[in-house]
Amino acid sequence: MKTDVELLKALLQATKIRKSLPGSQFALLFLYDALREDSSLYGQCEEILREHNGHGYFRECLEPIVSQPDTFSADKAAWIMSSIMTNCSYHYTKETAKGLLDKIYAKECKCSQLGKLEATCNLLKSVDFRQTAWSTPDAQQCVLSVTGESGLPQVYYKYMFALWMLSYDKAIAATLQERDVVPVIKKILESCRTEKVIRLGLVVIRNFLPDAALTTDIVECGILEVIQQLEFEKWRDQEMYDDIREVLQLVAVQVSTVSSFEKYEKEVSSGNLAWGYLHSNKFWGENITKFDQKEYSVVKKLCALLDIDNALTQAVACHDIGEFAVLHPLGKKKLNDFQVKEKVMGLMKSEDRDVRREALLCCQKIMLNKWQDASK
Asked: Which of 367, 362, 368 is nearest to 347 (CA)?
C-alpha cells in the first residue's frame, strides 16, 4: 500500500461490499491494523484526499458502515474514519468532525462503548478538533462515564488517554476538577495493574499538577499513598520504577505545600470545613506546634464554628478540637479556658449522626486525662 495507492483504494471499496460480511470485515481489520502499525500510510490517505478534492471519498466508504447492525465493523470504521480525520486534519473542518461524532453517538449507531471511546480519543488528539470533540455532550459523557469499577484495561487506558489529551488545553483542564476525575484516577491506580494504564495514569497526574484545583484534589484524595504502593509492585519494565519515583516526588512536594498550616487557617476562616488531608492524623502530627500562634487564634475560630448551622462543619470542627486536645501540650487547658466542653456536649444531642459521633469522641478526648496528670 505504500507504493500503490490503487491497492489502498481497492481495500476501501472492499469494506463497502455488504454481500460478503467476512470479506468486508477482513478489509476493515486489515486497514485498521495497517494504520495502527505504520502511521506513514496516512500519507497515502492524503494523496487520495487531494485526488478526490476533499474528504468525501473516505466518508462515503466508511461512515455508512457505522450504522450497520455489526458492532465489529462499526467500531473499526469509526476508528479508521476518526483517525484519518486527525492525521489529515487539513482536509477536514470542525463541522465534519462534529458530523462524525453525531453519527457515532446516534441511537441507530452500533458502535460499542469502547468503539465510541476510541473514536473520541482519536479526535481529542487533534488540536484542531479537541474543543469540538469535548464540547459534544455525548462524547464528553462517554469519557466521564468511565469509573474505577469498569474492570476493563482497554477502557481504563482510553480514559487516561482522553484526560492526557485534555490536560494540554488549559481551559478544558480547568473544568475537570468539577468533573471529579481525580477520584476515578485514584480508583484505577488502586485496582488496575496493566503497565500501560499505570504509566499513562502517572503522566496524567504529572500534567495535572500545574492546575491548582486539580492539585488540591490530588492531595486530598490521598493519591500520594496510592503511588507509594505502586513502587512495591513487580513491573516487567524497570523504567516504571523511575516514573513512579519521579511522580511520587512531585506529588509529595505538592502535599507539603497544599497541606500547610496557612491553608488550614484559610479554611477555618472561611467558615466551611470539609473532610480532607487538612484534617488527617498526619497533618495534625506535623503542624500541632503551630496552633499556639497569635494566642491560639485558629483554635478560637475553630471553636466558634461549633455554633454555626452546618452539620458537616460541626462534625469536622469536633474532630479537630479533639485532635488539639490530645496532641497539644496545653490543649485541654486552653479548651477549658475557651469553655468548649459545654458546646461539644450539646452537639451530642444533634439530629445528625456524624455530628453526634464526632462530638462524643471529642468529649472523650477533652475529658480523658493522661496517667501522669492523674498521679499529680
From this structure: 362
